[in-house]
Design brief:
The complex is a heterodimer of chains A (about 800) and B (about 160).
Chain A lengths: L1 H30 L4 H20 L3 H18 L7 H24 L8 H10 L12 H18 L1 H5 L2 H29 L11 H10 L17 H13 L5 H5 L2 H10 L5 H31 L5 H26 L1 E3 L1 H4 L2 H12 L3 E6 L4 E3 H22 L3 H6 L6 E10 L2 E8 L6 H10 L5 H6 L2 H6 L21 H11 L3 E7 L3 E9 L4 E9 L2 E6 L3 E8 L4 E3 L2 E6 L2 E7 H4 L11 E9 L2 E7 L1 E9 L13 E6 L5 E5 L1 H10 L26 E5 L3 H12 L4 E5 L2 H10 L6 E4 L8 H10 L8 E5 L4 H9 L4 E4 L4 H11 L9
Parallel strand pairs in A: 2-4, 9-18, 13-15, 19-20, 19-21, 21-22, 22-23
Antiparallel strand pairs in A: 1-3, 4-5, 5-7, 6-7, 8-9, 8-16, 10-14, 11-12, 12-13, 14-15, 17-18
Chain B lengths: L2 H22 L1 E9 L2 E6 L3 E5 L14 E7 L2 E7 H4 L12 E7 L2 E7 L1 E9 L3 E2 L12 E7 L2 E6 L1 H4 L5
Parallel strand pairs in B: 2-11, 5-7
Antiparallel strand pairs in B: 1-2, 1-8, 3-6, 4-5, 6-7, 9-10, 10-11
Classes of the chains: A alpha/beta (about 800), B alpha+beta (about 160).
Chain lengths: ~800, ~160
């Protein structure tokens, strides 16, 4: 049974690959019905699937493909002209085939789809009387037995040596033979009462002949697995032909030697393994970032040392190789975008018939490669954009002629690289978008307010078509009008961090550009700081950064805005979105990161810009998933975790955030003013690097009964403050200290809202006027020079903390 | 094969079986203190125990979710069990530890006040959770009795379950 599953998997993978190509080929075939090469290719697909499915006992599928094969074979021999009507039936049967394949994939059986109607029509086309017995088990299976050698004849080396006529004759002979057998079988079955469901008898003699023909070793020596052989060489040729532009299955298949080498060149790899590899590379990138940071630190400390150069070299090699490795692994996950583009010729064909328009599709750059996960995401958006172009863009032939355009409209679909992005551009030469009509339509549907409409630029008006519920269609049709399609485009493209850009000229056509990052896992980000926290913003959404002073921020309708050149930009403070506690006092200046998403813009106010860094996106895991505004996290060079901003969500949240409290609502911290009931409620910090000095100060203050905390330098003092274990009423600070001196300490302390009001008292032997000045500048309120008397120190402290005299015993 | 050898083998098998039997009715736990109470979780659900280090705050979560931290390249949520159990906040001390627990693919770090010890306790000595706490929602797996103390055994899968 396991073996069966394995074969089934192989069959499905191959069948889906073949079918994907089929659509494209068929549409091309309609344009050039006499292209024998193409016909042969298509015929072979039907044939292969039929062969394999009958081996796997998928009778319904076999039944269907068998009749498809008949029609195609007739066409191959010129007995049948492929007219659009014939094509409709063929295409329908291919759709059925796809449905069947999907069902097989999901349920491992092909039950549940009625193919009889389609089969009857196929049979009629191929000249039959339409009288086809409904799903039969044995007839097709017997065919398989006959077919196997046929497959070989067609594609294996022998084929090469035969002249075309010979091949045709051979095929004709076998076909006739089979049809005869078919009839006999049918008759036999009717006689037998229609309930034959026996597995196919093993084609022993065929097997041996095959083995004789194919000298290359096969993995499955037992005859049972033999029929599956037919697909094997073809799978490789198919892979081959995707790289070749022309669909030359036949050509590729013919020389056996060539197909042999291609087998060695490609390996199917489980996507999971690639994902794992990508994760490991991610770790490596993080390690590299760390290494670079450490290297910088070392460089600073040991400047001029000889070993530095060597270290520098190693670090740069590691970082270079890591980058290369990352690109290499990224490439293994890349798929040509042609995979998605393939289905559009068929779609355009169907749509143009349905809409009675003449539309030509031009595809360029289908070899452009994109990450697999992104390829999967962009299929749907493209479908909707193209449908939209067909329905609303391209005019009907008579209108086009009246406007002096050619009767046939052109939609061009192209993909190309642009920097770190892939651009997919969909152009049409239809009637274009009219900003005014779009606006009035949106107004009518209540999607925008009149005021918004007035302020709306052309680009923004174009983006209206992306709004959910917006539709230009007068009536809901099969093709469009529900107002959901373009909304899907927006959601999906934003999901992959892409940007949509619409350009249009009335009467000339419109152009939609989708800009999509190459990969999802590793991105460039702008790191910003707010208070003591840092956040990463995907660089692809950052348009620019501006430094502003606070008085450039205006409040309009309880929203913050600023003037950016000729535009008005709405602002939101990152701290308001992420509930950042305002510990540090924000400075007079702030930075505005201008975020762009499609035509939407938003200014994000941050305290500081940290820099640009390549970051690896990590998920926050099951426990913390779905936090609004956070797309994930990354690990920085210093080992800390930094959250990544989800720009899409942020824009949504920003709509609901009213005026930023940037102009600051400084709540006075109640902690300090807490009622003091005893002397020990007063807490003083003594900061001095000399133990003796600390002792002297302690002795001077002990008599008052105040609580005393000591720190030996500025950094230690700052850490004690940060921990917030004590509510200090005042600090005695020495000026000259290692690590962090008194001035710096005072400046740092004043940044915290909470300690703004705390008196800082300098205790120092520096007596110069400039020293005193610096002390005042850094926020010290008193200046005690050493030596001092104990009483003096005590009285200064008491005065500054409003010490109640009744506590003095 | 000689009979002697067979004997040796059968004896070894017997011993092995016995040791399996023994481990069957003994549960190994790691005990820790939160507030005044002693709690424990199965030793096998603990990935590691580490000293506190820096973490990053995450917005829009309940207060007991302190944020996320970096555990050798993985981003892991950090949950303060004091706050989760409704106790007041407390500064981290020298004894504070992060216990990293896992249940299948779910991993999270938990802040505890102090570790006690690894505990081997007989299954027979573990009682069910008190009747007053019932329903499937309880985080308590059972109550272990050992000498003079009572240890609350927690369900790791419940601890790792998102409840907001």
């Amino acid at each position: 049974m396991d073996e069966f599953q394995e074969i089934l998997q192989d069959f499905l993978v191959e069948a889906f690959e073949l079918v994907e190509k089929l659509d494209e080929d068929l549409v091309e075939l309609e344009a050039t019905p006499e292209d024998l090469e193409l016909l042969n290719g298509i015929f072979r697909v039907a044939h292969t699937i039929k062969g394999a499915s009958s081996f796997l006992n998928f009778d319904v599928l076999t039944h269907l493909t068998h009749h498809m094969e008949d029609v195609l074979n007739k066409a191959r021999h010129g007995e049948l002209i492929i007219t659009p009507d014939v094509m409709d039936v063929v295409l329908e049967s291919i759709d059925l085939m796809k449905t069947l394949l999907n069902i097989i994939r999901d349920t491992s059986s092909d039950a549940g789809v009625d193919v009889s109607e389609c089969v009857v029509r196929l049979d009629k086309i191929s000249g039959g009387d339409g009288d086809v017995p409904v799903p039969q088990a044995s007839a097709p299976i017997i065919n398989v037995v006959e077919e196997e050698p046929e497959v070989e004849d067609e594609n294996e080396p022998d084929y090469d040596n035969m002249s075309d006529d010979d091949v045709e004759a051979e095929i004709q002979r076998l076909l006739e033979q089979r049809q005869a057998e078919d009839k006999a079988k049918r008759a036999a079955k009717v006689a037998a009462g229609e309930e034959v469901l026996a597995p196919p008898p093993e084609p022993n003699e065929e097997t041996s002949s095959q083995n004789a023909k194919e000298s290359k070793p096969e993995k499955k020596p037992e005859p049972k697995a033999e029929p599956i052989k037919a697909p094997v060489p073809r799978a490789s040729t198919n892979a081959n032909s995707t790289s070749d532009d022309e669909d030359s299955d036949a050509k590729a298949a013919a020389p056996a030697k060539r197909s042999n080498t291609t087998v060695d060149q490609t390996i199917r790899v489980d996507v999971k393994r690639l994902d794992h590899l990508m994760n490991l590379i991610g770790e490596l990138v993080l390690a590299k970032n760390r290494l670079i940071k450490i290297n910088d630190d070392v460089e600073e400390r040991y400047e001029g040392e000889e070993f530095l150069e060597e270290l520098n070299q190693v670090v740069s090699i590691v970082s270079l190789v890591t980058t290369d490795l990352q690109i290499a692994v990224m490439k293994t996950r890349m798929l040509p975008i042609g995979k998605v583009f393939n289905k559009f010729p068929r779609m355009i064909r169907d749509l143009s018939r349905e809409l009675n328009k003449k539309i030509e599709l031009v595809i360029k750059g289908e070899e452009t490669e994109l990450d697999k996960s992104i390829v999967e995401e962009i299929g749907d958006p493209l479908v909707h954009i193209i449908r939209n172009s067909c329905d609303h863009g391209i005019e009907t032939p008579d209108v086009r002629l009246a406007n002096g355009k050619s009767e046939t409209g052109t939609i061009s679909l192209k993909a190309y690289n642009e920097g770190n992005q892939i651009v997919i551009q969909i152009d049409d030469d239809g009637k274009g978008l009219n900003a005014e009509i779009l606006k009035s339509k949106a107004l009518e549907k209540g999607l925008i307010s009149e005021k918004e409409a007035d302020n709306m630029g052309e680009k923004e008006a174009f983006m209206l078509i992306m709004k959910p519920g917006f539709s230009m269609a007068a009536a809901v049709t099969n093709v469009s009008g529900r107002g959901v399609g373009m909304d899907v485009v927006k959601t999906n493209i934003e999901k992959v961090n892409g940007i949509i850009d619409i350009e249009s000229e009335t009467g000339v056509g419109s152009s939609v550009k989708l800009k999509i990052p190459l990969t999802l896992a590793i991105i460039q980000a702008l790191l910003v700081g707010v208070q003591e926290e840092a956040y990463a913003i995907p660089l692809s959404s950052v348009l620019e950064t501006v430094r502003i002073s606070k008085d450039e921020i205006y409040t309009v309708e309880s929203r913050s805005v600023m003037r950016l050149r000729d535009d008005v930009l709405s602002l939101v403070h990152i701290g308001d979105i992420f509930e950042v506690e305002r510990i540090l006092d924000s400075s007079e200046h702030a930075y505005v990161v201008v975020l762009g998403l499609g035509a939407q813009k938003l200014g994000l106010i941050v305290d500081s810009l940290v820099g640009q860094e390549e970051i690896v996106i990590k998920s926050l895991g099951e426990y913390l998933k779905g936090i609004e505004g956070i797309a994930g996290a990354t690990i920085r060079g210093d080992g800390g975790v930094t959250l990544i901003v989800d720009v899409v969500a942020l824009m949504e949240i920003a709509k609901n955030v009213k005026a930023t409290s940037m102009i600051s609502d400084q709540k006075s911290e109640s902690a300090q003013s807490r009622e003091k009931t005893k002397a020990s409620d007063y807490t003083i910090m003594i900061v001095d690097d000399s133990k003796t000095d600390r002792m002297i100060m302690r002795k001077s203050l002990e008599a008052t009964g105040m609580s005393l905390v000591e720190a030996s330098d500025g950094l230690e003092a700052l850490n004690i403050l940060k921990q917030g274990d004590y509510n200090f009423d005042a600090m005695l600070i020495d000026i000259e200290m290692p690590r962090m001196d008194g001035y710096t300490l005072a400046t740092e302390i004043k940044k915290y809202n909470r300690y703004k009001q705390m008196p800082l008292i300098a205790v120092t032997s520096r007596t110069g006027k400039s020293d005193r000045m610096r002390g005042v500048e850094s926020g010290m309120v008193e200046y005690i020079t050493k030596p001092y008397s104990a009483d003096y120190l005590s009285s200064v402290v008491q005065r500054n903390v409003n010490f109640k005299s009744e506590f003095l015993s | 094969m000689s009979d002697k050898l067979k004997q040796v083998i059968s004896r070894q098998n017997k011993q092995q079986n016995e040791s399996i039997d023994q481990s069957d009715d003994i549960v190994q736990l790691v005990g820790f203190i939160i507030g005044e109470e002693e709690y424990a979780v199965p030793i096998l659900s603990i990935q590691e125990i580490i000293k506190p280090f820096t973490w990053t705050r995450v917005p829009q979560v309940p207060k007991y979710v302190m944020g996320v931290f970096n555990l050798r390249g993985a981003v892991i949520p950090l949950i303060d069990l004091r706050l989760k159990f409704g106790l007041s906040e407390k500064k981290h001390s020298d004894e504070t530890r992060f216990i990293v627990m896992k249940d299948r693919d779910d991993v999270a770090g938990f802040v505890i006040d102090r570790l006690t010890m690894a505990i081997r306790i007989k299954k027979a000595n573990i009682g069910p959770a008190p009747d007053t706490i019932n329903g499937d929602n309880t985080m308590i797996d059972g109550v272990g009795k050992q000498e003079d103390r009572i240890i609350t055994i927690l369900k790791v899968n419940k601890l790792l379950e998102r409840d907001f």
